[in-house]
Amino acid sequence: MPATAPAGVGHLRGTESFPRAARRALADPQLRRNLGHATTTIRAKSAAVIDELPDWAQLRAAGSAIKTDVLARLPELLVQLEAKVTEAGGVVHWAADANDANRIVTDLVRATGSDRVIKVKSMATQEIGLNEALAAAGIEPVETDLAELIVQLGDDRPSHILVPAIHRNRAEIREIFLRAMPGVDPALTDEPAALAAVARRYLRQTFLSTRVAVSGANFAVAQTGTLAVVESEGNGRMCLTLPETLITVMGIEKVVPTWQDLEVFLQLLPRASTGERMNPYTSMWTGVTSGDGPQAFHLVLLDNGRSAVLADRTGRQALHCIRCSACLNVCPVYERTGGHAYGSVYPGPIGAVLSPQLTGVADNASLPYASSLCGACYDACPVGINIPELLVHLRDQVPHPRAEATAMAAAGYTMDRPRLYEAAQRATRLGRLAGRRGRGLPPPLTGWTASRDLPEPPEQTFRQWWAQR
Amino acid sequence: MNSRDLVLGRLRAALAADPPTTTGAVPRDYRQSGALDLDRLVQRLTDYRAQVHRAAEDTVAETIAALLPSGATVVVPPGLPAGWLPPTVTVLPDTGLDNRQIGAADAVVTAAAVAVAETGTVVLDGSPDQGRRVISLLPDRHVCVVRAGQVVATVPEALTRLVPHRPLTWISGPSATSDIELNRVEGVHGPRTLHVVLLS
């Protein structure tokens, strides 16, 4: 039985099905405006910088091949990474699931005596619900990424992998800061520059006085034990260099085999994610460096359902994801519903195939259907994950209603018998008598005609015409 | 059974039950080097809001003097060439400065390890002429001196010039965020002004 991410902890499961959650999101014009603007902007920026490169296709091919190789050798690469990090003065911990990881991190923080941690944005820590676990243990987690700070102060959930507060516009952000950030000038405007300046002042003192930081990692090089964090604001640099203790929580699929492999991903990620040639800051570190930065470094390797994904030969390509969010930005469904409707911290196309595999498909059965199968995500993905293939594969696996299975069996029986099939075809002509209004399908197939018109049946079937010509 | 054995066991079982079929050979048909173009470095840095100045080894000091007000306090790494610093500034060598002193300084001057023309990036590696990571993080102005010989065209070339074990900071413009309605705003944490002095 593959070990999926446990329920009751973390944020991989929603409380309602996608269609229901989406319907509510669609009725929110502010959200739709924010999302439409955001995704249109990022798509254009990303397309422009990708067009500059003559070898984007070759980089994608290399990225895909590297990730395929990583999964094929995942156990040995992780063991190599562990050895190299340990050699360089770091300590490696293994977390079988979210509860395990939360316990490890909480114990490590407790051991330092600190009651506060500063956090660099990390999807993995959102996935496992680390903030809640720390708070329950009396430790205050302070998000330092501007968007995560907005989400945290707004008592909200992230709605996008890369820009988690994309569902908020500047007026809403100003309001959140006024309400929840201590010491803010009431005359604060909603100019983005002013809002960013407020965040800078608010967090500066916290950066300088907190002894423990928690981060994620974009990549970890097995050959050298080097970790890399890609960011824009500088809060990453603050968290990775100022405190005495650094704890990094990383999904096991983020390992790459060699130092050279970074050359591919450092080109794919910034262009596919924020639409930049390179993001403002990328930090790389190996273990501990004497006299520079944290003198205690802990790497927590997180499974939490990834080994279950690996067990599915088709499904495992979802583990190639480098969390760029290009698929979210091109998806017509995501653009209209936003991330909350998916119920998981991994929304959008990649979320629709990763979340159900991490939790077991039964717990996220509606997500593989949150798609029109247009395939835009596959085109956009910098590592070439065939998301449509995965969506169809997962649709096959989710529990299906009995009535649907019965109807399919009946259709199959009919289509296997030519005379029966011809009779059925002739019978559909009776549909012409029903007139437009009557021509929906009966339950359990009413869903099909709720938003589609059935075509008008012709006067003769093809077989009849053929026989008479 | 500890978590390490549990996780590794699951992974090995997952792969054994359904072994991958591809050979794993990575096609590296992308560009691994390019024609060096210093103007491209200047243009790309400028595009991402760094300010770029051209100078020669013997005019660095006067170039830096023009960038900083008289009497400005400037943190410098212990190995920075002394001749780069103008007499108009107050030099604070980092012989173990505390964060308060570093944060209160007006500027920091460092060298670089390598620069990438295609992306407009400079990389610091913690060498004596670049210093601890904190000194180029806390002050609000960072002046980074790059020698022409340190510039490469592409990211793959940069990685061949960098030593993995050193603490590396890749800088492509001043700090910025696009989290608020995707409006790019400079200067969240990290220096809000980045000057790159390119020596040829």
From TrEMBL, chain A:
One protein family per Pfam: LUD_dom
Region (Disordered): 434-460
Domain of life (superkingdom): Bacteria
Keyword Transferase: no
PROSITE patterns given in the database record: 4FE4S_FER_1
GO biological process: lactate metabolic process
Single GO molecular function: 4 iron, 4 sulfur cluster binding
Protein name (record): Lactate utilization protein
Organism: Micromonospora radicis
Automatic annotation (TrEMBL), chain B:
InterPro entries: FTHF_cligase-like_sf (IPR024185), LUD_dom (IPR003741), NagB/RpiA_transferase-like (IPR037171)
LUD domain segment(s): 100-199
Protein name: Lactate utilization protein C
